């Protein structure tokens, strides 16, 4: 990911991702027994639980923050999953926010109804810099369950690459203080072109007050 010249130049809520005209790349981290065969075969194996919620992240550096550069238990294999843009946008169009926001949702009952019905949910967490420090703008996290999770695994996935060596190489350069060498190795994440209205229900205006954080009733995978 190329960092903006100034954090003030970046909108608080925007999707930044490595993408082509047809695909978008997202990141996940798994234990080797799941991650290695997935990368080798280019698809998720049968043992990958399609009935569990799974979170995908378009931000490489947020994935590094989440997985500790691919060293946390159960997250030792970092995957770059290239998926179909139509599927990605279908998930966004059918998503709801993962937490209730006063002034954004009509009421908690309406939000809970959306949450029960939606096959996808969105969180906006602080983006990270090369040292994994929080930035003032947000990074998309997209949770998939039910139909969305199954379609992600069996329809939308175009390719899977094991980027664990890249994660470790960037980490080593950052730890050595050589940010100038680390930065060009990052995936080229650019603003994702938004179809009109794609994120209207998923971006909270400044001033909204969070009153309830979701504790998902659906088991999640990284």
What does the model show?
The chain is α+β, with helices and mostly antiparallel strands and 222 residues long. The chain contains seven helices and twelve strands. The chain has one domain. Strands 5-7-8-3-12 form a five-stranded mixed β-sheet. A hairpin with a 5-residue loop joins strand 7 (120-128) and strand 8 (134-144). It is globular and about 50 Å long. Residues 208-219 have low confidence and may be disordered.
Concise synopsis of the structure shown:
By secondary structure, the chain is an alpha+beta fold. It has one domain.
Task: Write the topology of this structure.
Blueprint: E1 16-17, E2 23-30, H1 32-41, E3 53-56, H2 60-67, E4 77-84, H3 85-93, E5 95-97, E6 100-102, H4 108-117, E7 120-128, E8 134-144, H5 146-156, E9 157-162, H6 164-175, H7 179-182, E10 190-191, E11 209-212, E12 220-221
Parallel strand pairs: 3-12, 5-7
Antiparallel strand pairs: 1-10, 2-4, 3-8, 4-9, 6-11, 7-8
Helix pairs in contact: 3-5
What is the CA-CA span between the terminal residues? 20 Å
Largest sheet: 5 strands, mixed
> What is the overall shape?
globular
Percent strand equals 25-35%
Integer average pLDDT: 88
Strand/helix succession: EEHEHEHEEHEEHEHHEEE
> Rg, please?
17 Å
Please state how the strands of the largest beta sheet are arranged side by side: 5-7-8-3-12
Based on DSSP secondary structure assignment, what is the total number of beta strands? Answer: 12
The percent of residues in helical segments reads: 25-40%
**Low-confidence spans: pLDDT under 50, at least 5 residues?**
208-219
User: How many independent structural domains?
Assistant: 1
Structural class: alpha+beta
